[in-house]
Amino acid sequence: MPDHSSFSGAGQRAQALVLIAEDEPEIAEILTAYFARSGLRTVHAADGRRALELHLSIKPDLVLLDVQMPQVDGWKVLAEIRHRGDTPVIMLT
C-alpha cells in the first residue's frame, strides 16, 4: 500500500493536506492535533458552504466531513465533492 503521508514533486516532499469539515470546535481541534502529530497539514471549515469553497481552492488530499453541519449538510457536500472528482472522503457522524 502506498505511503500517503507525503507526496513528492519537483524533488521536494510536501505534506498531505486534510480538510476538516466540522462545526464543533472541540472536535475540530482534536482532529487537527491528531493529524499534526502525524505530520499532516489541516485546514478547518465550520460549515458545509465553506467546506465546498475550500475544497475548490486548496485541493485537499483527504476530506473529513461531518454529516450534520450548518449551511450545507454533509451529504450534499459529499455529493458535490464526488461530482468534482475523486478526493477521498471520510464521513463523521
Q: What does the model show?
A:
This protein has 93 residues and is of the alpha/beta class. The chain has one domain: Response regulator (Rossmann fold), CATH 3.40.50. The chain contains three helices and six strands, in the order E-E-E-H-E-H-E-H-E.
Level-2 CATH architecture? 3-Layer(aba) Sandwich
Strand numbers in spatial order across the main sheet? 4-3-5-6
Helix content: 25-40%
State the helix count: 3
Strand content: 25-35%
Stretches with pLDDT under 50, minimum 5 residues: 1-13
* Top-tier CATH class: Alpha Beta
Query: CATH H level: which superfamily?
Result: Response regulator
How can the largest sheet be summarized?
A: 4 strands, parallel
Structural class assignment: alpha/beta
Give the count of structural domains. Answer: 1
Span from first to last CA?
27 Å
Please count the beta strands (DSSP E, at least 2 residues each): 6
User: What integer value in Å does the Rg equal?
Assistant: 13 Å
Order of helices and strands: EEEHEHEHE
CATH topology: Rossmann fold
Shape: globular
Average pLDDT, to the nearest integer? 88
